Amino acid sequence: GCRCLTFKTAEAFLASELPAEGLLIIDHKLPGMTGIDLLRLLRARGVRLPAIIITTHPSVALLAEATHLE
Fold it and tell me: What is the pLDDT of residue 63?
């Protein structure tokens, strides 16, 4: 089975024990920092989990920015 963890803010997620495996589903419009900012910070810390950024306000600029975060 799968286990799902949810967090109300990016800061709450960062304060938790980061998972070693799994999939991140990140809302772009988070309180505090954006989903892109969170993913950028995770990548800088060496976290390479696959991620899906979701949004109700898509744009070409957001798509380009998200696609270039490895």
Answer: 67
First-last CA distance in the chain? 28
For residue 69, how far is the Cα from the chain centroid? 11
The DSSP call for residue 45 is: T
Alpha-carbon distance 25 to 35, whole Å? 9
Give the whole-angstrom CA distance, residue 18 versus residue 7. Answer: 12
Give which of 39, 34, 28, 26 is closest to 68, Cα–Cα: 39
Q: Classify the C-alpha dihedral 46-66-13-5 as positive or negative.
A: negative
Q: Encoding tokens for residue 49?
A: 């989990």
DSSP state of 51: E
Q: Kindly indicate the confidence band of residue 16, based on its pLDDT and cuts at 50, 70 and 90.
A: very high
- In 1-70 the beta strands, taken as DSSP E runs, fall at 24-27, 51-54
